[in-house]
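Sequence in, structure out. Go.
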Amino acid sequence: MENVVVASSVQRQGIGQRLMEAAVQLGEAAGCYKAQLLAADDEYVHTFYEACGFKPLAQGFRRYLREELTSTTVN
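Output:
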């Protein structure tokens, strides 16, 4: 999962958690064995994903290959 965003005007209403649970349920129904995501290094982001049942188990690495992708996809 990547770029999970809820509009600021409706944050803290459980929408994000319901969205994450729906994604997990879709994966389970499709026979997936895990749900995985990358998260920003912000504490509130980690707290959110942990509240959704995710555990911080790995360190990830990334290398963008085309500059135009990084300017449009990275905040």
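Check: Residues 6 and 12 are 9 Å apart (CA to CA). The mean pLDDT is 87.
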